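Would you mind writing out the residues of a protein together with its fold in token form for me to study?
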Amino acid sequence: MEVFDMLVLGVEAAFALAGFAGIIATFQFGEAEKIRRLDAVGLSLIVKDSFSAAACCTLPMLLIVFQVTEATTWSLASIFASIVMALSVYGGYRISWRAFKSKSFQLLFLVVAIITSLIVFANILNASGIVFNREPGPVLLGVAWALAIAAYSFTRLLLLPIWKSVRLMEAADAGASA
């Protein structure tokens, strides 16, 4: 698979995740009077990270179409990906710091922030031509990571209400049999 095809696939996956999340959120929260902060943060992360991944794919696609040299394309794409991912971590922290009350969520966010920081650092090295030689790898890694975060948040958005219903039904069944 060529790099351009991977970038197109990244854009398609990003918009698919964001679109399906919107549909699910519409049905889950359509008439809800109370929405938990954690659910809103999860939905925000899906949209934010999906669009970040799409943006990080779109810039190199445009540069490739306009036949910018490969080294310049991946240098600019790495700089852009570094900025987008750093802003994404900062934005994720700002919207979620009050939602993540449990230690497990705080640890998860810390792990995500550390991995994202390493990817940002790899993209800075790539843009500078240090270690990496202005290649697509660090940019594609950043796109894959953003999509992975969006997919995790999507899975939570989809499955948590189902498991909540299962627990309520099991509790009702246990109460009825007692």
Notes: The mean pLDDT is 86.
